[in-house]
């Protein structure tokens, strides 16, 4: 693969309904997109899943834009690489910044899938032609509003309900949900809002038969989570703590979790997501695909990843209409009445990109190109 050009864009995409976690409330997404064009004109799209502020992780939209424009894109444009899975090696001099790196890496995987004439999910090694779907429901203004949203999502067929929790919006809320919906697959996502001193609270949650508690303790911890898992019956699921296959292996060895959530941006792209999935599958730890309020581009990449064999639990990949009045892909992602997504069969992501829609949402863009074929070690590039 020879990467001839990279186009970066920032779009502003308003949510149809605010989404609130323990970090705060989001009403509009600032989303970075990368379009990769290879020497033969094949193109692929990637999405940066960083949030508007450095709360979920230390990456954020404005910082990711600078990192992509000034460092990562110049490291890969005009360079030849043997495969999409090796693209990250070109960006190795930059430490961290996995979400920014994944923006480029995932786009390269789509280019490669198109070159091979196959759907991205098959190119990744996926085996599932239909993936089970759940929903993530943010903190609401009232418990009644939460119950109403859950009822609506269940009517739409979703197989699992995840609700965000935080101190003061936890035991009583989950109790009310369980009372109203005694048989649903239910989980709570704490986004690191608690400490080990809250073990008595988590023991109270044991009585509600939750599928899992997602990342209840510190975002960078696997040791306290191991202690917590020893003291409660509910499975702990790690999210923010897992950035690599090595992290997954260490957490599993320590007994820090019984389930792992995989997010493409958090682990740095498809190649590392495949490593995490393999480590978990070999250790009988189920994985599922987490969401980051992605547009259709990121959502399509999530669909492809979630077809890997280790993804056995319903993920956060849901219909475009849950988030956007109009998505940036065609057709939008839809969910069957049984709460599944049928994976596309067209080469690449399997969805078309609506350029007129993207153009209307774009607030800035940058093209990074080569004037001529560089030497192997030449990283210079030209911004236009």
Chart the SSEs and their pairings.
Layout: E1 3-21, E2 24-38, E3 43-48, H1 61-76, H2 87-90, H3 98-116, H4 120-124, E4 130-132, E5 134-137, H5 143-155, E6 160-164, H6 171-180, E7 186-189, H7 199-205, E8 213-214, H8 223-231, E9 236-238, H9 245-254, E10 259-262, H10 264-267, H11 270-282, E11 287-289, H12 296-305, E12 329-330, E13 340-342, E14 352-353, H13 355-361, E15 362-369, E16 382-383
Parallel strand pairs: 5-6, 6-7, 7-8, 8-9, 9-10, 10-11
Antiparallel strand pairs: 1-2, 1-15, 2-3, 4-13, 12-14, 15-16
How would you describe this structure to a colleague?
Residues 372-384 have low confidence and may be disordered. The protein folds into 2 domains: 3-117 and 353-383, Enolase-like, N-terminal domain (Enolase-like, domain 1); 122-349, Enolase-like C-terminal domain (TIM Barrel). The radius of gyration is 20 Å and the shape is globular. It has helices spanning 61-76, 87-90, 98-116, 120-124, 143-155, 171-180, 199-205, 223-231, 245-254, 264-267, 270-282, 296-305, 355-361, and strands at 3-21, 24-38, 43-48, 130-132, 134-137, 160-164, 186-189, 213-214, 236-238, 259-262, 287-289, 329-330, 340-342, 352-353, 362-369, 382-383. The strands form 4 sheets. It has a 7-stranded parallel β-sheet with strand order 5-6-7-8-9-10-11. It is of the alpha/beta class and 384 residues long. It contains 13 helices and 16 strands. 33% of the residues lie in helices and 22% in strands. Helix 1 (61-76) crosses helix 3 (98-116) and helix 9 (245-254) packs parallel to helix 11 (270-282).
């Amino acid at each position: 693969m020879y990467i001839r050009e990279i186009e970066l864009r920032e779009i502003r995409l308003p949510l149809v309904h605010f989404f609130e976690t323990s970090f705060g409330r989001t009403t509009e997404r600032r989303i970075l997109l990368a379009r990769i064009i290879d020497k033969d004109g094949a193109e692929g799209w990637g999405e940066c899943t960083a949030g508007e502020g450095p709360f979920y992780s230390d990456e954020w939209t404005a910082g990711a834009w600078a990192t992509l424009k000034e460092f990562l894109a110049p490291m890969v444009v005009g360079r030849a690489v043997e495969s999409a899975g090796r693209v990250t090696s070109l960006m190795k001099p930059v430490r961290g910044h996995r979400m920014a790196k994944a923006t480029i890496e995932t786009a390269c995987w789509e280019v490669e899938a198109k070159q091979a004439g196959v759907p991205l999910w098959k190119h990744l090694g996926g085996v599932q032609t239909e993936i089970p779907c759940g929903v993530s429901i943010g903190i609401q203004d009232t418990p009644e509003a939460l119950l109403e949203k859950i009822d609506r999502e269940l009517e739409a067929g979703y197989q699992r309900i995840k609700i965000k929790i935080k101190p003061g919006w936890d035991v009583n809320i989950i109790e009310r949900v369980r009372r109203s919906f005694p048989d649903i697959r239910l989980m709570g996502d704490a986004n690191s809002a608690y400490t080990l001193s809250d073990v008595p609270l988590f023991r109270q949650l044991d009585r509600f038969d939750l599928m899992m508690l997602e990342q209840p303790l510190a975002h960078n911890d696997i040791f306290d989570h191991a202690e917590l898992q020893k003291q409660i019956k509910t499975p702990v699921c790690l999210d923010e703590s897992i950035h690599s296959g090595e992290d997954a292996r260490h957490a599993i060895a320590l007994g820090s979790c019984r389930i792992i959530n995989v997010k493409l941006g958090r682990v740095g792209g498809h190649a590392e997501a495949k490593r995490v999935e393999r480590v978990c599958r070999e250790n009988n730890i189920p994985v599922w695909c987490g969401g980051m309020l992605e547009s259709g581009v990121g959502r399509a990449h999530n669909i492809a990843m979630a077809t890997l064999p280790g993804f056995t639990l319903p993920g956060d990949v849901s219909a475009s209409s849950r988030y956007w009045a109009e998505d940036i892909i065609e057709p939008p992602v839809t969910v069957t009445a049984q709460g599944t997504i049928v994976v596309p069969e067209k080469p690449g992501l399997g969805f078309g990109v609506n350029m007129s829609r993207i153009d209307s949402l774009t607030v800035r863009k940058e093209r990074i190109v080569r004037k001529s074929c560089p030497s192997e070690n030449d990283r210079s590039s030209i911004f236009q």
